[in-house]
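Subject: Protein record for review, amino acid sequence with backbone structure tokens
Why sent: The fold of this protein is of interest and is recorded here as tokens.
Notation: Tokens come from a learned vocabulary of local backbone shapes, not from coordinates.
Attached in line: The record itself begins immediately under this heading.
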Amino acid sequence: MSSASLIKNPTERVRLNPVVFYASTILILLLTAVLIAAPQQAGHMLGQAQDWLSKSFGWYYMLVIGAYLVFVVGLAFTSFGKLKLGTKDDTPDFSYGAWAGMLFSSGIGISLLYFGASEPLDHFFNPPEGVSASSAAARQAVQLTFLHWGLHGWAIYALVGLAVAYFAYRHNQPLALRSALYPLVGQRWVKGLAGDAVDGFGMFVTLLGLVTNLGIGAMQVSSGLEHLFGMQHNNTNLLIVILVMSTVATIAAVSGVENGIRRLSNLNIILFSGLLLFVLLAGDTLHLLNGFIQNIGDYLNGVVLKTFDLYVYTGDTAKSERWLGLWTLFYWAWWISWAPFVGMFIARISRGRTVRELVFGVLLIPLGFTLAWLSVFGNTALDLVMNQNVAELGKTALEQPSMAMYQLLDHFPASKIVIGVAIFVGFVLFLTPADSGAVMMANLSCKGGDVDEDAPHWLRILWSAIITLVTIGLLFAGNFEAMQTMVVLAGLPFSVVLLLFMWGLVKAMKQDAKAEEDRLEQMQAELLALGGREFIRR
């Protein structure tokens, strides 16, 4: 493949891609209008569709998620892992510390605060198999939570980030999803209908994930304010929270990657780490450390089994299928829905890194902290319910998950101050995925410009506004769960696009490796010929 393929003219200004922009916007607004206009009917139909998908394609989801993980790890360990995402003279745009911080923050949102205590408790009371509220259920609960937040999801981010970065920085192609299809369909189709379709659908899937994130974030912050200050839980207060969060995220998006997003990432790490250390040290430290080590062992020991576990032999097929659809399949689809914008953001900050650096950086840098957070908060919540008879926490986790974290912190010293910090942490955690998502949505809406040139400010502001309006409409219509269901449904076709990314990467890397071998052989032949002529002259 020629490195001149799909070259973007650096003198060509960034401009709107009308096909991608209008098609994705119309699709998004039509879906939102239907969900708002007929919430009950739409919710019922989407629920039936999700049940059908869980029964018919659960096996497929489990297979492809496992394939993504094996693929990216395999690439990193092969000779392809040495390939640089850029020319041989390119150096990383960001220091290793800044790069690691942005990797951490781009994929870890406020959902980790939302599910940190509530998910293990939900699995404890409603396990996919076994006796509920038992010691075995508690152990399995943390194992399942690790599965949903572990290597598989980060592998999806690594795959998209690698595919986009490889073609952008090694072949000077657009920093867009479409570029990964070039080896398969050629320049004409990538620049035309096929490329527009992939970018447009990628934007649609991304918006589903961003709306879900904003909705969860607003409920998390609103619940914290309700718990701390007694703020009434109503639509007016929820609207104020959403507008404030969206406004700050938009300002950060306009300030760009180098300024707003990088600084927010650094703040994320400090605040998040501080809250984790407080709970670890103020709680039963020895118990939490023992639990973390055992949780890691359970996760690694069962990672292959749980990757393919469809709970066929539970004796209650309907229950297990429902649990799988509500949890594991939802998570896999949710990771896929975040993959376009998180993957593009990872590509945007990874010029000059090698394939191996990107893969292991994405897989391991955020993973250690994520698992530590889930273990510390999950085991603290389970201990409160099982050993300290705090039954109210278990009930809250099932009925109002966004409140569970704050009720947990009530049992620690200086709880009011700590809860206030937790609310602020949630606010900041929401911002980085939200602003990076708006930037990447705007970038996908454009064409032209340099490879790593971001879209104009007005387009970033517009996408932030669209995300905000869609979230408000769905929350107020009482149909936010329908949007979560759409995440699962939309993840299915986009999972096929990711398989095509794998095919395109292997094909391109083989061609590049062959071209490099031919170049070295030619250089050796020229050197030998030159040496022969020198020998004859002597």
